[in-house]
């Protein structure tokens, strides 16, 4: 086999490897989506359970207001955690693009 034939075989092997990786990622994404649906249903049932437990001590309007406040507080906490800057990004900001990973560097500094 000449070098062009070897290059073609290597390229086909790399394409096969990438196809397998993409298929695995697609299945992982599907499983993650299904897990997310079940996670949301668990949160909904937990909210119903808390509402029913609070209903024993308070009226329906007060119970709904308390549960709404708890949910808003949790949303604010997780929203803040999602929006805050990580230590890596804080270190990378003062010195420009010098400390950023190369993949981010290509996107951010172009």
What are the main properties of this structure?
elongated; 0% strand; 82% helix; 110 residues
Summarize this structure briefly.
By secondary structure, the chain is mostly helical.
Describe this structure as you would to a colleague.
The chain folds into 2 domains: 1-52; 58-110, no CATH class. The chain has helices at 3-55, 60-83, 87-92, 102-108. With 110 residues, the chain is mainly α. Helix 1 (3-55) packs antiparallel against helix 2. 82% of the residues lie in helices and 0% in strands. It is built from 4 helices and no strands. 0% of the residues are buried.
Uncertain runs with pLDDT below 50, 5 residues or more? none
Task: Give the ordered list of helices and strands.
Answer: HHHH
Structural class: mainly alpha
Mean pLDDT score:
85
Number of strands: 0
State the distance separating the first and last CA atoms: 42 Å
Question: Any chance you could write out the topology, listing elements then pairs?
Answer:
Layout lengths: L2 H53 L4 H24 L3 H6 L9 H7 L2
Helix pairs in contact: 1-2
